[in-house]
Amino acid sequence: MITFICIVLSAVALASCAGNQTETSYQQISQEEAKNLMDTEESYLILDVRTEEEYGELHIPGAICVPNETISDTPPEELPDLEQMILVYCRSGNRSKQAAEKLAAMGYTDIREFGGITTWPYETVSGE
After folding, report:
1. What burial class does residue 101 get, using C-beta atoms within 10 Å of its C-beta: 0-12 exposed, 13-18 middle, 19+ buried?
2. Cα-Cα-Cα-Cα dihedral sign, residues 26, 30, 36, 38
3. Whole-angstrom Cα distance, residue 119 to residue 25?
4. Coil vs helix vs strand at 90
5. Which terminus of the chain faces fewer neighbouring Cβ atoms within 10 Å, N or C?
6. Distance between CA atoms of 43 and 94, rounded to whole angstroms?
7. How does residue 127 score in pLDDT terms, banded at 50, 70 and 90?
8. Closest Cα partner for 111 from 101, 123, 126, 119?
9. CATH C-level class of 23-119
10. Mean of pLDDT values over 87-115
11. Using an 8 Å Cβ cutoff, are 111 and 47 in contact?
12. Residue whose C-alpha is closest to residue 63's, from 48, 79, 41
């Protein structure tokens, strides 16, 4: 009887732990994979999470700027589709990871973080 009670209590404990987990994740991909997606996919958004000043100096063509510091717990108006593929980058990869985590926590479902522009070997542009 004691063994049965222990088994039941263990099962309940495991079930409650599993019920508290939330799936808030994003994919980390290589810059080569990101470039391949940009070349082959149609419905994606490139998100630069650096400051407006950094974005103006140099960014990936077609990227939009939503600084990481402005992303909180409300979906940014620039990102209306929670299911759209969002390719996220920053300067070195730190802010893009933070932003990707915040977006995933808000319910965005297809976030691909690919590091920083300092190591981006493909085309960049300057200006707005």
Report:
1. middle
2. positive
3. 24
4. strand
5. N
6. 25
7. confident
8. 101
9. alpha beta
10. 97
11. no
12. 48
Q: Is residue 74 predicted with pLDDT exceeding 80? A: yes
Cα–Cα distance, 35 to 63 (Å, whole number)? 13
Residue-wise pLDDT tens digits, 13-59: 444 444 433 456 999 999 999 999 999 999 999 999 999 999 999 99
**DSSP 8-state secondary structure symbol assigned to residue 59:** B
**Could you give the CA distance from residue 47 to residue 99 in angstroms, rounded to a whole number?**
10
Q: Tell me what percent of the residues of the chain surpass a pLDDT of 70.
A: 81
Token pair recorded at residue 41: 């996919």
List, in sequence order, every residue forming a beta bridge with 41; answer none if it has no partner.
Answer: none
Q: Supply the pLDDT for residue 3.
A: 52
Give SS3 for 71.
coil
Cα(44)–Cα(84) distance, integer angstroms: 6
84 touches 107 (CB < 8 A): no
Measured CA angle at 74 (ends 69, 76), to 5 deg? 65
